[in-house]
Specification:
Blueprint (H helix, E strand, L loop, with lengths): L2 H13 L12 E4 L4 H7 L4 E7 L4 H16 L5 E7 H8 L2
Parallel strand pairs: 1-3, 2-3
């Protein structure tokens, strides 16, 4: 398999629209390298449940509805819920 074919497949996988792109739930925050530090400082008094996900991962996709239900049921518990795309976050922030 040539490197060009592999790169082409990776671009298709990354460019696909995922269920994580259409979150209308205001209880779940999508964090990235530009807003991570600001959210953590602004909401330091909260406990955080952060789900690191990958858009192509079937396990992550199955976990999202559970996370949405938790975020709706635990609004009074002083917990913030967030998603972080591990590929985008770690590849830019830590590598």
């Amino acid at each position: 398999m040539s490197i060009f074919f592999i790169v082409f497949l990776l671009k298709i996988i990354i460019a696909q629209k995922s269920i994580f792109d259409d979150l209308n739930d205001t209880q779940i925050i999508t964090l990235n390298e530009t807003n991570f530090d600001a959210y953590m400082q602004k909401n330091a008094e909260y406990k955080w449940f952060i789900m690191f996900y990958s858009a192509w991962c079937p396990h992550c996709q199955k976990m999202l509805p559970i996370l949405q239900e938790l975020s709706q049921n635990l609004t009074q518990e002083h917990i913030k819920f967030a998603l972080i795309d591990w590929y985008l976050f770690f590849s830019r922030k830590f590598l």
